[in-house]
Amino acid sequence: MSLQQTLNWRSATKGYNGKPIENEKLEQILEAIRLAPSSSGLQPFKVLVIKNRELREKLQPISFNQDQIVRASHILVFAAWDEYTTERVDSFFEFSNQVRNLPNSATDDYRLNLLGMLEKQTREQHFNNASKQAYIALGFGLLAAADLRVDATPIEGFNNEAVDELLNLPEQGLKSTVLMALGYKDEETDWWGKLDRVRRSKEELFVEIN
């Protein structure tokens, strides 16, 4: 189908039937997330791919008891860096230069300039920026899922601190930002999918500056 048809097909699924996703489709969705752009290419986040039922049952009560948490096939937890450290930035540039067969000196100016800007920011600003990068990846994952006709739901309704503790994220220098449910909808309980799509008009949403 065309991109437009794919976008019109997609909706935030509220009811899942428990059917597991085919592994091939899951891998394609994860690859789309991996290939998503991020500021300076740093990819300052990790994505926890949770299939384990027992763990998701623990996740549900700290996610406002949302049914998708346990009825979906998988839950993805996007966890952003809690700060941009020199070690993290240096490690990325070393890796990038190795992949591109470049000497480390080739990117020193860019790297040092980036570190200089980051040093002027607070840890909260670092996390907010890293979270934005995770959301870009979330968007790519949602589109990839729709293209494969896998139902998905972005989820912000959860207790971040409790999720962080459950998944031991602080020990990894990470903080949860957003969840994503993946699976196949239950036509009877997916009440949201029965409603007409509501979007603002092009005239109201876009402002052309010529």
TrEMBL record:
It comes from Chryseobacterium pennae. Keywords: Flavoprotein, FMN, NADP, Oxidoreductase. CDD domains: NfsB-like (cd02149). This is NAD(P)H-dependent oxidoreductase. It comes from the Bacteria. The keyword Iron-sulfur does not apply. GO terms for molecular function: oxidoreductase activity. Its cofactor is FMN. Belongs to the nitroreductase family. SUPFAM superfamilies: FMN-dependent nitroreductase-like (SSF55469). Residues 9-184 form the Nitroreductase domain. The lineage of its organism: Bacteria, Pseudomonadati, Bacteroidota, Flavobacteriia, Flavobacteriales.
